[in-house]
Amino acid sequence: MEVFNTPAKIIITCNRRLSPYLQEEVEELGFKVVRPFNTGVEIKASINECIKLNLNLRAASQVLYQLRSFKANNPKELYDELVKIAWEEILPFDGYFTVTSHVHNETVTTPLFANVKVKDAIVDRIKDKKGMRPNSGPGLDKAVIHLHWMEERAEIFIDTSGETLAKHAYRKIPGKAPMLEALAYSTIAATKWDGKSPFINPMCGSGTLAIEAALIAQNRRPGLLRMNYAFMHLIGYNEEVFFQERRVLKEQSDKAIMPVIVASDISAEAVEVSRQNARTAGVEHLIQFETGDFEKTTVPEEKGVIMFNPEYGERLGTHFKLEATYKRIGDFLKQSCKGYRGYIFTGNPDLAKKIGLKASRRFEFFNGKLDCRLLQYELYDGSKD
Predict the structure, then answer these.
(1) 63-71 and 341-346 as β-strands: parallel, antiparallel, unpaired?
(2) What is the pLDDT confidence band of residue 384, given thresholds at 50, 70 and 90?
(3) Could you give the C-alpha distances from 158 to 2, 39, 143, 229, 261, in angstroms and in order?
(4) How many CA atoms lie within 13 A of 117 on its CB side?
(5) How far apart are CA 199 and CA 193, in angstroms?
(6) Are 348 and 313 in contact (CB under 8 A)?
(7) Fewer Cβ in 10 A, N or C end of the chain?
(8) Could you report the per-residue pLDDT of 26-65, keeping only the tens digit for each?
(9) Are the C-beta atoms of residues 372 and 366 closer than 8 Å to each other?
(10) What's 58-117 look like in SS3?
């Protein structure tokens, strides 16, 4: 099975509500989206093309290459179909692989049982053909096979990513209640920030929003920070294809673009965490870090985007205290950020009412399982007219 050069159905997954931003990215890379859905997009591509996708995408989670789709009513039928696949031409007999799954079938009480069936079929097939069996376990740092089994319809995929793409490999120190990198990127994409005007991020926490803004500005892709993907552990992998894609990433990044990016936080510890994460990402020199109350954050005269991600009252702080904070944020936007587009990302609609400004747009997101909104405010310089 020559999967590296053979186009097949590709499912690129993402967290809920990030699909529109993922689709934009995929199309900008020159791929045609066959079908968008709530947690991803479908395209057609080879695994060599999946290498490009893995290195470039910011909103994605996994890039899945379909091997087969078939009918399976129960675990035995699943095994019988899977053992027909030429796994000895895909996975090294002396290698290591893991199985992940998304299963909804009445004959299976736990996805782990389905995973074992997949593993057994792969191991039995390779042992029969090669006389040796590969090792398997939970690690995602080698080859990964993914099962999607809904009712009687089963699909088996090669997960070309392994560890999720939603983490961009720079946040070694998470900080408190961090925003996932793919989500941070998508919220910035929603603002249509031009990458050149100022980007101001008070209450920066672990610095994810400011770091993503800096990476966007210089067109620095996540693949520049990561050197291991699941596709590297398949038979037929040509490392030259990978290194050629990395060379393209380096050539297309533009270090001459240096917008004003400000990240501030009242916590000196948070600012230091942000600084260290930015250093890992290679953009520390692009971000102006400040320690102090958000009202003292530097707001350049040149108009741009200012984005807050305050506490929601779910895990941190008290609701009463946060009401005053949200009101202060609204006052700060009105008084100190005229001419800017203001954004507040929150999972608490009651607190959002305390801002005292009317949102011109509301973008829907999830932060984990929490239903959130990115609220947009037009901060007119003078009268609206």
Answers:
(1) unpaired
(2) low
(3) 13, 18, 8, 12, 39
(4) 23
(5) 8
(6) yes
(7) C
(8) 999 999 999 999 999 999 999 999 999 999 999 999 999 9
(9) yes
(10) CCCCCEEEEEEEEECCCHHHHHHHHCCCCHHHCCCCCCEEEEEEEEECCCCCCHHHHHHH
Spatial contact of 12 and 57, defined as CB atoms under 8 Å apart? yes
Cβ neighbours for 252, distance < 8 A, ≥ 6 positions apart:
219, 221
Tokens describing residue 225: 């920070």
DSSP-derived pairing of the beta strands 63-71 and 153-159: antiparallel
Tokens of 93: 């007999």
Report d(CA 376, CA 51) in Å as an integer: 35
Are 62 and 13 contacting, i.e. CB atoms less than 8 angstroms apart? yes
Retrieve residue 283's tokens: 């953009």
- b/e string for 77-109 if b means 16 or more Cβ within 10 A? bbbebbeebebbebbbbeeebbbbbebebeebe
Check pLDDT > 80 for residue 314.
Answer: no
- Residue 262 in tokens: 């400000």
> Does the reported pTM lie above 0.85?
yes
Counted residue by residue, the chain has a size of: 385
**Looking at the DSSP assignment, which residues form a beta bridge with residue 135?**
96
Instruction: Please identify which residue in the block is written with the tokens 């129960």.
Output: 74
- For 239, other C-beta atoms within 10 Å of its C-beta total 8
- Chain centre distance of CA 383: 39
Q: How far apart, in whole angstroms, are the C-alpha atoms of residue 59 and residue 53?
A: 11
Q: What is the 3-state secondary structure (H, E, C) of 275-336?
A: HHHHHHHCCHHHEEEEECCHHHCCCCCCCCEEEECCCCCCCCCCHHHHHHHHHHHHHHHHHH
**pLDDT (average), residues 198-212:** 97
pLDDT at residue 197, as a whole number: 98
Q: For tokens 């994810």, what's the residue?
A: 208
CA 127/CA 167 separation, integer angstroms:
35
As given in the structure block, the two tokens for residue 128 are: 């029969």
